[in-house]
Specification:
about 350 residues, alpha/beta, 3-stranded mixed β-sheet, 11 helices, binds uridine-diphosphate-N-acetylglucosamine
Length: about 350
Protein backbone atom coordinates (compact mmCIF):
# COMPACT_ATOMS: atom_id res chain seq x y z
CA UNK A 1 0.00 0.00 0.00
CA UNK A 2 1.04 3.62 -0.49
CA UNK A 3 0.58 5.25 2.90
CA UNK A 4 0.47 8.95 3.75
CA UNK A 5 1.92 9.62 7.21
CA UNK A 6 0.81 12.99 8.51
CA UNK A 7 3.21 14.05 11.26
CA UNK A 8 5.53 11.38 9.90
CA UNK A 9 8.65 13.33 10.94
CA UNK A 10 7.64 13.11 14.60
CA UNK A 11 8.61 10.57 17.23
CA UNK A 12 6.05 7.82 16.55
CA UNK A 13 5.58 8.61 12.85
CA UNK A 14 9.29 8.27 12.05
CA UNK A 15 9.50 4.85 13.72
CA UNK A 16 6.35 3.78 11.92
CA UNK A 17 7.85 4.84 8.57
CA UNK A 18 10.73 2.40 9.16
CA UNK A 19 8.42 -0.51 10.01
CA UNK A 20 6.09 0.18 7.06
CA UNK A 21 8.99 0.21 4.61
CA UNK A 22 10.29 -3.01 6.17
CA UNK A 23 6.88 -4.60 5.66
CA UNK A 24 6.96 -3.67 1.93
CA UNK A 25 4.71 -0.59 1.94
CA UNK A 26 5.52 2.78 0.33
CA UNK A 27 5.37 5.89 2.48
CA UNK A 28 4.95 9.63 1.98
CA UNK A 29 5.45 12.07 4.83
CA UNK A 30 3.48 15.31 5.33
CA UNK A 31 4.71 17.47 8.19
CA UNK A 32 4.98 21.17 9.01
CA UNK A 33 7.91 20.60 11.41
CA UNK A 34 6.12 22.44 14.21
CA UNK A 35 7.48 19.80 16.60
CA UNK A 36 10.14 17.95 14.60
CA UNK A 37 13.33 18.48 12.61
CA UNK A 38 14.16 17.94 8.94
CA UNK A 39 17.24 15.95 9.96
CA UNK A 40 14.82 13.08 10.69
CA UNK A 41 14.48 12.52 6.95
CA UNK A 42 18.27 12.03 6.58
CA UNK A 43 18.29 9.57 9.44
CA UNK A 44 15.38 7.64 7.93
CA UNK A 45 17.31 7.37 4.69
CA UNK A 46 20.35 6.00 6.56
CA UNK A 47 18.24 3.33 8.24
CA UNK A 48 16.05 2.31 5.30
CA UNK A 49 18.09 3.36 2.21
CA UNK A 50 14.88 4.98 0.94
CA UNK A 51 14.43 8.69 0.20
CA UNK A 52 10.95 9.17 1.58
CA UNK A 53 8.94 11.77 -0.37
CA UNK A 54 8.25 14.78 1.85
CA UNK A 55 5.53 17.41 1.71
CA UNK A 56 6.23 20.31 4.04
CA UNK A 57 2.63 21.35 4.60
CA UNK A 58 0.09 22.18 7.26
CA UNK A 59 -2.26 19.21 7.13
CA UNK A 60 -5.20 21.46 8.02
CA UNK A 61 -4.70 23.32 4.72
CA UNK A 62 -7.02 21.79 2.14
CA UNK A 63 -5.25 23.10 -0.94
CA UNK A 64 -1.92 21.74 0.21
CA UNK A 65 -3.35 18.36 1.17
CA UNK A 66 -5.27 18.20 -2.10
CA UNK A 67 -1.96 18.53 -3.96
CA UNK A 68 -0.54 15.46 -2.18
CA UNK A 69 -3.53 13.34 -3.18
CA UNK A 70 -3.49 14.60 -6.78
CA UNK A 71 0.19 13.80 -7.21
CA UNK A 72 0.11 10.35 -5.58
CA UNK A 73 -2.18 7.32 -5.66
CA UNK A 74 -2.64 7.02 -1.91
CA UNK A 75 -4.24 3.91 -0.40
CA UNK A 76 -4.28 4.81 3.28
CA UNK A 77 -3.62 7.61 5.76
CA UNK A 78 -2.08 7.31 9.20
CA UNK A 79 -2.83 10.56 10.99
CA UNK A 80 -0.14 11.32 13.59
CA UNK A 81 -0.05 15.09 13.07
CA UNK A 82 -1.20 16.86 16.18
CA UNK A 83 -0.16 18.96 19.14
CA UNK A 84 0.37 16.82 22.23
CA UNK A 85 1.48 18.83 25.29
CA UNK A 86 -1.20 18.39 27.94
CA UNK A 87 -0.18 21.40 30.08
CA UNK A 88 0.04 23.72 27.06
CA UNK A 89 -3.39 22.57 25.90
CA UNK A 90 -4.98 23.97 29.05
CA UNK A 91 -3.35 27.40 28.56
CA UNK A 92 -3.94 27.66 24.79
CA UNK A 93 -6.90 25.36 24.16
CA UNK A 94 -8.01 27.09 20.93
CA UNK A 95 -4.72 26.30 19.24
CA UNK A 96 -5.17 22.63 20.17
CA UNK A 97 -8.77 22.38 19.04
CA UNK A 98 -8.00 24.24 15.79
CA UNK A 99 -4.98 22.14 14.90
CA UNK A 100 -6.04 18.71 16.10
CA UNK A 101 -9.60 18.83 14.76
CA UNK A 102 -9.04 20.77 11.52
CA UNK A 103 -6.32 18.40 10.35
CA UNK A 104 -8.71 15.45 10.62
CA UNK A 105 -11.59 17.26 8.90
CA UNK A 106 -9.38 18.33 6.00
CA UNK A 107 -7.99 14.84 5.55
CA UNK A 108 -11.45 13.24 5.61
CA UNK A 109 -12.78 15.68 3.00
CA UNK A 110 -9.85 15.21 0.65
CA UNK A 111 -9.87 11.43 1.14
CA UNK A 112 -13.56 11.33 0.24
CA UNK A 113 -12.95 13.29 -2.97
CA UNK A 114 -10.16 10.90 -3.94
CA UNK A 115 -11.94 7.71 -2.83
CA UNK A 116 -9.28 6.83 -0.27
CA UNK A 117 -10.91 4.65 2.36
CA UNK A 118 -8.38 3.57 5.00
CA UNK A 119 -7.74 5.82 8.01
CA UNK A 120 -5.64 5.00 11.08
CA UNK A 121 -5.76 7.55 13.91
CA UNK A 122 -3.36 8.26 16.80
CA UNK A 123 -5.58 8.34 19.84
CA UNK A 124 -4.45 8.02 23.45
CA UNK A 125 -5.17 6.19 26.68
CA UNK A 126 -5.89 9.66 28.02
CA UNK A 127 -9.46 9.27 26.66
CA UNK A 128 -10.23 6.86 29.52
CA UNK A 129 -9.90 9.79 31.96
CA UNK A 130 -9.71 8.60 35.57
CA UNK A 131 -10.06 4.81 35.28
CA UNK A 132 -12.75 3.16 37.39
CA UNK A 133 -11.15 -0.25 36.91
CA UNK A 134 -7.86 -1.65 35.60
CA UNK A 135 -6.71 -2.98 33.20
CA UNK A 136 -8.42 -0.74 30.67
CA UNK A 137 -10.57 -2.45 28.05
CA UNK A 138 -11.71 -0.68 24.87
CA UNK A 139 -15.42 -0.60 25.81
CA UNK A 140 -14.87 1.13 29.14
CA UNK A 141 -16.24 4.64 29.80
CA UNK A 142 -14.34 7.62 28.42
CA UNK A 143 -13.96 11.17 29.67
CA UNK A 144 -11.19 13.74 29.64
CA UNK A 145 -9.56 16.12 32.04
CA UNK A 146 -7.82 18.49 29.59
CA UNK A 147 -8.31 20.00 26.08
CA UNK A 148 -5.64 17.74 24.54
CA UNK A 149 -7.58 14.68 25.70
CA UNK A 150 -10.83 16.16 24.41
CA UNK A 151 -9.33 16.67 20.95
CA UNK A 152 -8.56 12.93 20.90
CA UNK A 153 -12.04 11.94 22.04
CA UNK A 154 -13.71 14.40 19.63
CA UNK A 155 -11.62 13.04 16.77
CA UNK A 156 -12.69 9.51 17.70
CA UNK A 157 -16.33 10.65 17.55
CA UNK A 158 -15.92 12.47 14.22
CA UNK A 159 -14.21 9.49 12.61
CA UNK A 160 -16.82 7.07 13.95
CA UNK A 161 -19.68 9.21 12.59
CA UNK A 162 -18.08 9.65 9.18
CA UNK A 163 -17.37 5.91 8.89
CA UNK A 164 -20.98 5.13 9.90
CA UNK A 165 -22.21 7.28 7.01
CA UNK A 166 -19.80 5.84 4.45
CA UNK A 167 -19.90 2.07 4.08
CA UNK A 168 -16.62 2.08 2.15
CA UNK A 169 -14.60 3.73 4.90
CA UNK A 170 -12.38 1.85 7.37
CA UNK A 171 -11.25 3.63 10.53
CA UNK A 172 -8.88 2.21 13.12
CA UNK A 173 -8.55 4.21 16.35
CA UNK A 174 -5.35 3.34 18.18
CA UNK A 175 -5.23 4.24 21.86
CA UNK A 176 -1.56 4.41 22.71
CA UNK A 177 -0.37 3.90 26.24
CA UNK A 178 3.08 5.40 27.09
CA UNK A 179 5.52 5.09 24.17
CA UNK A 180 9.21 5.20 25.07
CA UNK A 181 12.46 3.83 23.62
CA UNK A 182 13.96 4.37 20.19
CA UNK A 183 15.02 2.50 17.06
CA UNK A 184 17.81 0.04 17.90
CA UNK A 185 20.21 1.90 15.55
CA UNK A 186 20.20 4.91 17.92
CA UNK A 187 19.69 7.18 14.86
CA UNK A 188 16.07 8.19 15.47
CA UNK A 189 14.31 8.80 18.79
CA UNK A 190 12.27 11.20 20.87
CA UNK A 191 13.56 14.78 20.75
CA UNK A 192 11.32 17.00 22.89
CA UNK A 193 11.78 20.73 22.53
CA UNK A 194 12.41 22.55 25.82
CA UNK A 195 11.92 20.86 29.17
CA UNK A 196 10.45 17.38 28.67
CA UNK A 197 6.94 16.87 30.05
CA UNK A 198 7.14 13.11 30.03
CA UNK A 199 9.06 10.87 32.38
CA UNK A 200 11.37 8.89 30.11
CA UNK A 201 12.91 11.80 28.17
CA UNK A 202 13.40 13.54 31.52
CA UNK A 203 15.22 10.53 32.97
CA UNK A 204 17.49 10.27 29.94
CA UNK A 205 18.31 14.01 29.97
CA UNK A 206 19.26 13.71 33.65
CA UNK A 207 21.43 10.70 32.85
CA UNK A 208 23.27 12.63 30.08
CA UNK A 209 23.79 15.63 32.40
CA UNK A 210 21.44 18.11 30.69
CA UNK A 211 19.32 18.29 33.89
CA UNK A 212 20.18 17.86 37.60
CA UNK A 213 17.64 15.38 38.84
CA UNK A 214 14.28 13.83 38.12
CA UNK A 215 11.38 15.35 40.03
CA UNK A 216 9.21 12.43 41.06
CA UNK A 217 5.67 13.80 41.17
CA UNK A 218 4.32 12.36 44.42
CA UNK A 219 4.88 9.15 46.38
CA UNK A 220 1.48 8.95 48.02
CA UNK A 221 -0.49 7.40 45.17
CA UNK A 222 -2.41 4.19 45.69
CA UNK A 223 0.25 2.04 43.96
CA UNK A 224 2.95 -0.51 44.87
CA UNK A 225 5.50 2.10 46.03
CA UNK A 226 3.33 5.22 46.08
CA UNK A 227 4.60 6.61 42.74
CA UNK A 228 2.51 6.70 39.55
CA UNK A 229 2.16 3.50 37.52
CA UNK A 230 1.96 3.47 33.71
CA UNK A 231 2.03 1.01 30.81
CA UNK A 232 5.25 1.86 28.93
CA UNK A 233 5.52 0.43 25.43
CA UNK A 234 8.56 0.32 23.14
CA UNK A 235 8.01 2.72 20.22
CA UNK A 236 9.11 0.05 17.73
CA UNK A 237 6.41 -2.31 19.03
CA UNK A 238 3.96 0.57 18.74
CA UNK A 239 5.13 1.24 15.18
CA UNK A 240 4.53 -2.42 14.28
CA UNK A 241 1.02 -2.00 15.70
CA UNK A 242 0.40 0.53 12.91
CA UNK A 243 1.46 -1.95 10.25
CA UNK A 244 -1.04 -4.41 11.71
CA UNK A 245 -3.73 -1.71 11.93
CA UNK A 246 -3.25 -0.76 8.30
CA UNK A 247 -3.63 -4.33 7.17
CA UNK A 248 -6.70 -4.66 9.42
CA UNK A 249 -8.26 -1.50 7.94
CA UNK A 250 -7.66 -2.76 4.43
CA UNK A 251 -9.68 -5.92 5.09
CA UNK A 252 -12.47 -4.61 7.41
CA UNK A 253 -15.02 -1.81 7.02
CA UNK A 254 -16.36 0.43 9.80
CA UNK A 255 -14.64 1.63 12.96
CA UNK A 256 -12.56 -0.40 15.39
CA UNK A 257 -10.74 0.72 18.55
CA UNK A 258 -7.57 -0.95 19.83
CA UNK A 259 -5.46 -0.38 22.92
CA UNK A 260 -1.76 -0.49 22.10
CA UNK A 261 0.03 -1.25 25.35
CA UNK A 262 1.88 -4.13 26.99
CA UNK A 263 -0.53 -4.78 29.85
CA UNK A 264 2.29 -4.25 32.41
CA UNK A 265 2.39 -1.33 34.83
CA UNK A 266 5.66 0.11 36.17
CA UNK A 267 6.08 2.80 38.81
CA UNK A 268 8.20 5.94 38.46
CA UNK A 269 10.76 4.53 40.90
CA UNK A 270 10.91 1.23 38.97
CA UNK A 271 11.56 3.21 35.79
CA UNK A 272 14.42 5.17 37.37
CA UNK A 273 15.94 2.04 38.94
CA UNK A 274 15.72 -0.01 35.72
CA UNK A 275 17.16 2.76 33.54
CA UNK A 276 20.04 3.26 35.92
CA UNK A 277 20.80 -0.48 36.29
CA UNK A 278 20.52 -1.44 32.61
CA UNK A 279 22.64 1.48 31.40
CA UNK A 280 24.99 1.74 34.37
CA UNK A 281 24.33 5.47 34.77
CA UNK A 282 23.36 7.53 37.79
CA UNK A 283 19.85 9.04 37.77
CA UNK A 284 19.47 11.29 40.82
CA UNK A 285 15.91 12.08 41.84
CA UNK A 286 13.84 13.91 44.41
CA UNK A 287 10.27 13.33 45.51
CA UNK A 288 8.20 16.50 44.98
CA UNK A 289 4.49 17.39 45.03
CA UNK A 290 1.99 15.65 42.76
CA UNK A 291 1.49 17.05 39.24
CA UNK A 292 -2.11 18.29 38.93
CA UNK A 293 -4.26 16.01 36.79
CA UNK A 294 -2.12 12.88 37.23
CA UNK A 295 -3.80 9.58 38.04
CA UNK A 296 -2.55 6.74 40.25
CA UNK A 297 -2.26 4.04 37.62
CA UNK A 298 -3.06 3.30 34.01
CA UNK A 299 -2.42 0.12 32.06
CA UNK A 300 -4.00 -1.70 29.17
CA UNK A 301 -5.71 -4.92 28.47
CA UNK A 302 -4.28 -5.40 24.96
CA UNK A 303 -6.00 -8.73 24.19
CA UNK A 304 -8.24 -7.29 21.48
CA UNK A 305 -5.29 -6.18 19.35
CA UNK A 306 -3.86 -9.69 19.59
CA UNK A 307 -7.15 -11.43 18.84
CA UNK A 308 -8.14 -9.27 15.86
CA UNK A 309 -4.86 -7.93 14.46
CA UNK A 310 -2.43 -10.62 15.70
CA UNK A 311 -0.26 -7.90 17.18
CA UNK A 312 1.28 -7.78 20.59
CA UNK A 313 4.16 -5.92 22.19
CA UNK A 314 7.34 -7.97 22.39
CA UNK A 315 10.02 -5.78 23.91
CA UNK A 316 10.56 -5.61 27.67
CA UNK A 317 11.38 -2.70 29.94
CA UNK A 318 15.13 -3.38 29.86
CA UNK A 319 15.11 -3.08 26.06
CA UNK A 320 13.08 0.14 26.28
CA UNK A 321 15.64 1.65 28.70
CA UNK A 322 18.63 0.41 26.71
CA UNK A 323 17.37 1.80 23.39
CA UNK A 324 16.38 5.14 24.94
CA UNK A 325 19.92 5.49 26.27
CA UNK A 326 21.52 4.48 22.98
CA UNK A 327 19.61 7.28 21.24
CA UNK A 328 20.23 9.84 24.02
CA UNK A 329 23.93 9.07 24.47
CA UNK A 330 24.63 9.09 20.71
CA UNK A 331 22.59 12.29 20.23
CA UNK A 332 22.97 14.31 23.44
CA UNK A 333 21.22 17.28 21.84
CA UNK A 334 18.71 15.25 19.88
CA UNK A 335 18.66 16.17 16.19
CA UNK A 336 20.66 19.38 16.69
CA UNK A 337 23.75 18.88 14.57
CA UNK A 338 26.27 20.95 16.54
CA UNK A 339 27.32 18.89 19.57
P1 LIG B 1 5.39 14.43 17.71
O1 LIG B 1 5.10 15.83 18.14
O2 LIG B 1 6.78 13.93 17.79
O3 LIG B 1 4.86 14.23 16.20
C1 LIG B 1 3.75 14.92 15.69
C2 LIG B 1 4.18 15.53 14.35
O4 LIG B 1 3.07 16.21 13.78
C3 LIG B 1 5.32 16.54 14.47
O5 LIG B 1 6.34 16.18 13.56
C4 LIG B 1 4.68 17.88 14.10
O6 LIG B 1 5.60 18.73 13.45
C5 LIG B 1 3.56 17.41 13.19
N1 LIG B 1 2.40 18.32 13.09
C6 LIG B 1 1.65 18.84 14.10
N2 LIG B 1 0.65 19.59 13.59
C7 LIG B 1 0.76 19.54 12.23
C8 LIG B 1 0.02 20.10 11.15
N3 LIG B 1 -1.05 20.88 11.35
N4 LIG B 1 0.43 19.83 9.89
C9 LIG B 1 1.50 19.03 9.66
N5 LIG B 1 2.24 18.47 10.63
C10 LIG B 1 1.86 18.73 11.91
O7 LIG B 1 4.40 13.49 18.54
P2 LIG B 1 4.37 11.90 18.66
O8 LIG B 1 4.79 11.56 20.04
O9 LIG B 1 5.05 11.28 17.51
O10 LIG B 1 2.80 11.66 18.59
C11 LIG B 1 2.14 11.38 17.38
C12 LIG B 1 0.65 11.34 17.62
O11 LIG B 1 0.36 10.39 18.65
C13 LIG B 1 0.06 12.67 18.12
O12 LIG B 1 -1.20 12.84 17.54
C14 LIG B 1 -0.05 12.46 19.62
O13 LIG B 1 -1.06 13.25 20.17
C15 LIG B 1 -0.40 10.98 19.68
N6 LIG B 1 -0.03 10.37 20.97
C16 LIG B 1 1.26 10.46 21.42
C17 LIG B 1 1.61 9.89 22.65
C18 LIG B 1 3.02 10.00 23.17
O14 LIG B 1 3.23 9.73 24.36
N7 LIG B 1 4.01 10.37 22.40
C19 LIG B 1 0.64 9.20 23.40
C20 LIG B 1 -0.66 9.10 22.90
C21 LIG B 1 -0.98 9.69 21.67
C1 LIG C 1 1.03 12.19 29.91
C2 LIG C 1 -0.23 12.95 29.68
C3 LIG C 1 -1.16 12.11 28.79
C4 LIG C 1 -0.45 11.78 27.47
C5 LIG C 1 0.86 11.06 27.81
C6 LIG C 1 1.66 10.75 26.59
C7 LIG C 1 -0.50 14.38 31.65
C8 LIG C 1 -1.31 14.63 32.87
N1 LIG C 1 -0.84 13.28 30.95
O1 LIG C 1 0.69 10.96 30.49
O2 LIG C 1 -2.34 12.81 28.52
O3 LIG C 1 -1.27 10.95 26.67
O4 LIG C 1 1.65 11.90 28.67
O5 LIG C 1 2.14 11.92 26.00
O6 LIG C 1 0.37 15.15 31.28
N2 LIG C 1 6.47 11.84 36.18
C9 LIG C 1 7.37 12.26 37.15
N3 LIG C 1 8.28 13.20 36.83
C10 LIG C 1 8.36 13.77 35.58
C11 LIG C 1 7.43 13.34 34.58
C12 LIG C 1 6.50 12.38 34.92
O7 LIG C 1 7.33 11.76 38.28
O8 LIG C 1 9.23 14.64 35.34
C13 LIG C 1 5.50 10.77 36.50
C14 LIG C 1 4.05 11.16 36.33
O9 LIG C 1 3.52 11.67 37.52
C15 LIG C 1 3.42 9.80 35.94
C16 LIG C 1 4.55 9.07 35.20
O10 LIG C 1 5.76 9.71 35.61
O11 LIG C 1 3.11 9.06 37.09
C17 LIG C 1 4.43 9.15 33.68
O12 LIG C 1 4.27 10.52 33.31
P1 LIG C 1 4.27 10.98 31.76
O13 LIG C 1 5.44 10.39 31.08
O14 LIG C 1 4.13 12.46 31.75
O15 LIG C 1 2.99 10.26 31.17
P2 LIG C 1 1.46 10.30 31.65
O16 LIG C 1 1.27 11.15 32.85
O17 LIG C 1 0.97 8.92 31.71
Amino acid sequence: MKVLLTGGAGYIGSHTAVELLKAGHDVIIADNFSNSKKEVLNRLKEITSVSIPLYEVDVANKEEVEKIFSENKIDAVIHFAGLKAVGESTSIPLKYYRNNIDTTLTLLEVMQEHHVNNFVFSSSATVYGVPEKLPLVEGMPTGCTNPYGWTKLMNEQILTDVAAANPDLSVVLLRYFNPIGAHESGRIGEDPSGIPNNLMPYISQVAIGRRDKVHVYGNDYNTKDGTGVRDYIHVVDLAKGHVAALEYADSHKGTEIFNLGTGNGYSVLEMIETFSRVNQVAVPYEIVARRPGDIDACYANADKAYEKMHWRAEKNLEEMCRDTWKWQSNNPLGYELEK
